[in-house]
UniProtKB/TrEMBL annotation:
SMART domains linked to this entry: AAA (SM00382)
GO biological process: DNA-templated DNA replication
Domain AAA+ ATPase: 36-184
Any Pfam family hit: DNA_pol3_delta2
Keywords of this entry: Nucleotidyltransferase, Transferase
UniProt key word Nucleus: no
Gene Ontology MF terms in the entry: 3'-5' exonuclease activity; DNA-directed DNA polymerase activity
Record flagged with keyword Nuclease: no
Enzyme Commission designation: 2.7.7.7
EC main group: transferase
Organism: Nesterenkonia sedimenti
Protein name as it appears in the record: DNA polymerase III subunit delta
Length: 401
């Protein structure tokens, strides 16, 4: 039993990094040392706040309030100085937050990053390059990055983010200082949603619980009735599975929902980008695009197509995480753990499903979900991966058509 005194809530740029006190302490010490390690690897499951932690660390490295003695916090990353505010808003000239909306990073993307790393921070302490989803970097792309990680330019700090150390090549992770993040507790996420987003206690608790303490997902569920409805439709599907034909229909419904969500997001963004490009080129909204400018619009369309493919994968992965929660709840009921269910509002339906499954079968369903998530990231056609999953979720004693 841990009897140590509770740590005071983080302040400044680290204020929203809830439940990560040990990591925050390491990052603050590194930022205040004046000689931080040149390469870092932030790992943790989805919802642990890897990107938020990386942004906060980048802000702390360049915090001017701490240097001048003007900040009132307990270390670098005051959140009040101009540098911290720019970092948090995404406008800091010496901090690059890099992500990909494609299935993987391209070698050209990595070479561009290396070129950026050569630039001096121009009046700031450190040039910080944060690579989100570093696990999406192919082996060839990673090898291009390796030399810059080994011998970075002066005043350059690399921060790579990935779900686990195993998701990054050993040649990279062996050259990085590792920061491990965890999923924050429900109480911490609930309190954050109440204090920051203005939710009432009941709304915040529900969003925190069903999101499995993923802060970003919790905020989306709290803010969007459509997102809540889509989630409820998804988690209800395995509760109705009785036959192979139902499994095929359920798979088709899941994939269709993911594709519709991805297409809506991609279309909306493409329209905004095309409108912005028209304005920059001096074209009226309905004016025909001159032939010499069409390549620029074609490039936007190609990028949108690549984003849509990644968006379908991400949407399906979120759904499979929600389905994983269903079978964790079933297992909790079967083992009579006495703990609150993630989907407490579905307890009656979950109890009925638990009657049809043994604990071993529930574990098998969890394995099938993990396999499906892996297959989707490996470019298996979503329809095939989800159909195989749904077939595996049919209770064995009732697996007939």
């Amino acid at each position: 039993m841990n009897t140590s005194a509770p740590i005071a809530p983080a302040t400044g740029v680290f204020a929203e990094l809830v439940g990560q006190d040990h990591a925050i302490g390491q990052l603050k010490r590194a930022a205040s040392s004046g000689t931080p390690t040149h390469a870092w690897l932030f790992t943790g499951p989805p919802g642990s706040g890897r990107s938020n932690a990386a942004r906060a660390f980048a802000a702390a490295l360049n915090c001017t309030g701490y240097i001048s003695g003007e900040n009132t916090s307990d270390g670098p990353g005051c959140g009040e100085c101009r540098s911290c505010q720019l970092a948090l808003s995404g406008g800091h000239p010496a901090i690059s937050m890099v992500s990909t909306e494609n299935v993987s990073y391209r070698i050209e993307d990595v070479r561009e990053l290396i070129t950026t790393a050569q630039d001096r921070p121009q009046g700031h302490r450190w040039r910080v390059i944060v690579v989100e989803d570093a696990d999406r970097m192919t082996e060839r792309a990673t090898n291009v990055l390796l030399k810059s990680i080994e011998e970075p330019p002066p005043q350059t700090v690399w921060v790579l983010c990935a779900p686990s150390p195993a998701d990054v090549l050993v040649t990279i992770r062996s050259r990085c200082r590792h920061i491990s993040l965890r999923i924050p507790p429900t109480e911490a996420v609930t309190q954050l949603l109440v204090s920051r987003d203005g939710l009432n206690q009941q709304q915040a608790e529900f969003a925190a619980r069903v999101s499995q303490n993923h802060i970003g997902v919790a905020r989306r569920l709290a803010a969007s009735a459509e997102a809540r409805e889509r989630r409820e439709q998804a988690v209800a599907l395995p509760l109705k599975l009785r036959s192979a034909s139902q499994a095929v229909l359920a798979a088709s419904e899941l994939v269709s929902m993911a594709q519709a969500e991805a297409e809506a997001e991609s279309s909306s963004r493409l329209e905004q980008e095309q409108a912005a490009l028209r304005r920059s080129l001096g074209l009226e909204p309905e004016e025909k695009v001159p032939p010499k400018l069409r390549s620029q619009f074609k490039r936007l369309e190609d990028e949108s197509t690549r984003r849509a493919k990644r968006a379908v994968t991400d949407s399906l992965d979120r759904t499979l995480i929600d389905l994983t929660a269903v079978y964790r709840d079933v297992l909790s009921i079967k083992l009579d753990t006495g703990t609150d269910l993630i989907n407490e509002h579905l307890r009656g339906d979950l109890a009925e499903l638990a009657e049809r499954l043994s604990p071993e079968q529930a574990l098998g369903c969890l394995d099938a979900l993990n396999t499906a998530r892996l297959r989707i990231t490996q470019n298996v056609p979503p329809q095939l991966a989800v159909e195989a999953l749904m077939m595996a979720l049919i209770p064995r004693s009732r697996r007939s058509d």
